[in-house]
Amino acid sequence: MLPDDDEFIEIDANPEQSAPKPFPFISAAELTAKPISIPWLLEGYIERGSLNLLFGGPGTGKSLLDLDWGFCVAHGIHWNGCPTEQTDVVVIAGEGFAGMARRLKALEVKHGRPAPERLFISQRPGDLIDSNNAQWIADSIMALCPNPGLIIIDTLHRNMTGDENSSADIGQFVANIDNHLKPLGAAVLIVHHSGHGTAQRSRGSSSIRAAMDAEFSATKDGANVVLTCTKAKDFEAFSPQQFTLKTVDLPWPDDDGEPLKSVVLEHAGDAKPVTAKRRLSARDDAILTALSEAIDKHGVEPSAEIKDKFAGFKGWTNRAAKVVHIDHWRELAYQTITVDCEAEEGKADARKKAFKRCRNKLFDSGFIVEHGDYAWPIFH
Fold first, then answer.
1. Which of 154, 202, 286, 351 could form a disulfide with 55 if both were Cys (CB 3.0 to 4.6 A apart)?
2. How many CB atoms lie within 10 A of CB 57?
3. Rounded to an integer, what distance in angstroms lies between the CA atom of residue 223 and that of residue 245?
4. Structural domain spans, the chain
5. Does position 254 have pLDDT exceeding 90, yes or no?
6. 85 with 76: CB under 8 angstroms?
7. CATH 3.40.50.300 fits 40-270, yes or no
8. Alpha-carbon Rg of the chain, whole angstroms?
9. pLDDT band for position 338 (cuts 50, 70, 90)
């Protein structure tokens, strides 16, 4: 039934009932009245309520790092000597479900305690570019743990349906985090991939980095992983830290009765300076990217000989560390090489020479490794 005229008049007569609250301001004097200390969640790394990015290439241990951080924060224990504030931790996992239990079991062995009850793992990815879906995730987190302190999104690519190269799509992704997840009071850590052909920046739009309070990169240095703080808006960045990969026997047998294995990262102190690599041309970068694409399409497990001769493969029993036959790489690389020649025979010869020159440069500069008929990026 519609309200009568008197009811409308009564509402109009009290406009203050529907007046919006004043936009919030605070005086500068009040802000500086008390000393401010950084509210650390993980001291030196992650502040409470902050937005953070951890990026790295395949095999750089970024998911090992974020799960280790979540494990320690949920328990309230030190991580490599850095204090944590104990709080609930939620991981919105977009990949790696098969190995999650093994990684958690390996962390139990590493830290000598059971997996924390305050650490929660999603069983599917979430589309955080959709505001309704982001609100659904936020509501589910609140029902699970009303006061989450850390939300880990692993990875950005698997938890959004938009284009990571689009500043508009990334803007919507970040806005949904700001509007739905951060109001829960949690710090947010986004795990992402490094750019194609370079480990020095995250993949996709530059607006990703611009939105972050802190940014970290994970890179490979031979058999080691190096963690670097590449952006720290409100604190002094730590010096690059080095980690080694340690294989852990799990208290679970395989089909033959042998212990299942997983891997953890062991802190090995400050990282040693890395010799600067030669700058790549656009063609070199495209051919290096073709190598990664060839591994994605045609990659195979490295032979026992390669594992024995080269660092970085041993112990990685729960990751797809792959190499690719050079013919598959060459086939994709030729598609990126443009030559100024009309004759088909001349084009083929020019592409062959260009590919050979680039292979030699990438090898000499430490971007790739070759053995026999197989190749792989040094950071893979």
1. 202
2. 23
3. 8
4. 40-270, 282-377
5. no
6. yes
7. yes
8. 25
9. confident
